[in-house]
Write a structure and sequence with these properties.
The protein is mainly beta. It has a domain of about 130 residues. The protein has no helices and 21 strands. A hairpin with a 6-residue loop joins strand 5 and strand 6. The protein is globular, with a radius of gyration of 28 Å. The N and C termini lie far apart (about 85 Å). It binds zinc ion (ZN). The site of zinc ion has 8 residues, from loops.
Amino acid sequence: MNSSEQPLKTAGYRTQPLVVPGNSCYGHGHGWAQVVSFAPQVHKEERVKVPMRDMVCHVCGKSSQIPAAALSAQCVHCHAYFETTHYVLHSGTRHRILHTLGNVIVPGGVELSHLDVMCSDLVISGKVSGRFCAAQRLELRGRARIKGELSADFLSVPSGASVTVAPSVMVRNAELRGELRGRLIAKGQVHVYSNGRLLGACRAEKLLLDPGAEHEGVLLT
Ligand SMILES: [Zn+2]
């Protein structure tokens, strides 16, 4: 018996290539012929379930699922490539261009200019200028000041905040419980809660003002 005629191990991972009798030589003393596959056999019940999370592509806007622990990911729709790191920016940071599927935080007291940020959730409490796009949630806290292009799917200004955007912020929906100075352009609904203030022009499909809420500025159409 030559070595290629040893019985195959079929459980778990193969340690040798799977071979089957080739029709042309089987029975003629030439042994095994056709190599079929080196692929490891992984049985269904052995597969490990990887925790997944949703991602929204910054380029095409479509959502898909990526492994929760992935450090980078590629959009299955448009093939754009992103890292998934979260960043907390401090004054003097060398990071000026941040395109990540993770979240970005600019804490209070931090002043940064010429930033180019694309991320999932963005929280700004500091004073920044540049271009900012949050694919999901944008939260403006404390005494945040933002100059430049600012857009997000959802804007939240929490209670107690007094923030300024110049010239404007573009969102789908917004929820104001604190004070926002600047122009607010919304494709969907703007909801100003009691004690919330919007000081600037507003364009929205629907503007909801709770009792005690304030809007000073024109309604754009
Ligand atoms: Zn995409």
